[in-house]
Amino acid sequence: WEELTLLTARWPAEMCDGVRVVVQANLESNEELAAIPRSGADGVGLYRTEFAYLKGRLPDEEELLAEYSVVAQKISPERVVFRTLDVGADKMLHAQAALKEPNPALGLRGIRFCLRHQGLFRTQLRALMRAGVHGNVAIMLPMVSGLDEVQQVRRIIQEMHQELTAQNLPHAPVLPLGVMIETPAAALICDALARECDFFSIGTNDLIHYIMGIDRNNRHVAYLNEPLHPAVVRSLKHIVDAAHREGIGVSVCGELASDPLGMALLLGMGVDTISAAPRFVPGLKHLIRQLSAETCMELAHSVLLSTDVAASRRMVREQLHQSL
Ligand code: PEP
Ligand code: MG
């Protein structure tokens, strides 16, 4: 089965009723680039940029530019979505560890850290804009919880454009800018956020934890990490609908997208793009080819009506088994 899946990896992920799904890959560093062609991924939906920063010293602009340019070139003409530095909580820089925040998961992480340490952030944005001339590059902001964060980033990008132009450095002046939806605040204001940005990617790992009020590393409350909880399911649907009303696309790059049941549910809610670790991509594409958009929509409909997690789980399993 595995061999068959790999052989068909490059075929498009088209459902039985002709609906095409974009399946992209999540990458942790450019060392994983070689896995992309074999996986059949339609580009990179999440490039985590933390790796270069977790080596005990901060990378400079030229180092970042070299890394990002190679990735953009290799993936071109497909898109690569670079997520700006998302440190904090489970991935700490020395500067952050020194803050000794009592609760880092609720602290200065993701975009909050970058807007506080703008020197570091500007270096990264300059490298991304310069790498933009080597391929199809988009920028994505993690841990957004307010409109002003996106507006500030747009202003900084505009300044970086003026700076790079004055220095005669080739760069892409306007790159698509998206946000990760992974805080309840972002989920609740996603209509307004959708008007400020070009795409959404739902980070279900964090979103579920913050909705459920649990720490992602605390095993005592791991039982509450429940994607089928009605609060989670309703939030997901709300985000997808708001994005589509405002005319932007939605991807899911959290682990829920690489779970077969989770993926079917997400497609049924109208998610446009799935992004998962390269090893999951061939299997997800294979599964998509056996599903129909109608089955997925019925599944999502039943789950959205349910307030009983165990019943939802049974329903998803049964409906999927029947359709496969
Ligand atoms: C997520 O939160 O779902 C996500 C993809 O981001 P990370 O796991 O890197 O926090
Ligand atoms: Mg996250």
UniProtKB/TrEMBL annotation:
It is found in: Cytoplasm. It catalyses: L-histidyl-[protein] + phosphoenolpyruvate = N(pros)-phospho-L-histidyl-[protein] + pyruvate. Its main location: cytoplasm. Residues 11-291 form the PEP-utilising enzyme C-terminal domain. Its cofactor is Mg(2+). It is an enzyme of class 2 (transferase). One of its GO terms (biological process) is phosphoenolpyruvate-dependent sugar phosphotransferase system. Mg(2+) binds at residues 182, 206. Keywords: Cytoplasm, Kinase, Magnesium, Metal-binding, Phosphotransferase system, Sugar transport, Transferase, Transport. The active site is at residue 253. Phosphoenolpyruvate binds at residues 48, 83, 205-206, 216. GO terms for cellular component: cytoplasm. GO terms for molecular function: kinase activity; metal ion binding; phosphoenolpyruvate-protein phosphotransferase activity. Its EC number is 2.7.3.9. Transmembrane segments: none annotated. Belongs to the PEP-utilizing enzyme family. General (non sugar-specific) component of the phosphoenolpyruvate-dependent sugar phosphotransferase system (sugar PTS). This major carbohydrate active-transport system catalyzes the phosphorylation of incoming sugar substrates concomitantly with their translocation across the cell membrane. Enzyme I transfers the phosphoryl group from phosphoenolpyruvate (PEP) to the phosphoryl carrier protein (HPr). This is Phosphoenolpyruvate-protein phosphotransferase. The lineage of its organism: Bacteria, Pseudomonadati, Thermodesulfobacteriota, Desulfovibrionia, Desulfovibrionales. The chain holds residues 250 to 573 of 590 of the full protein.
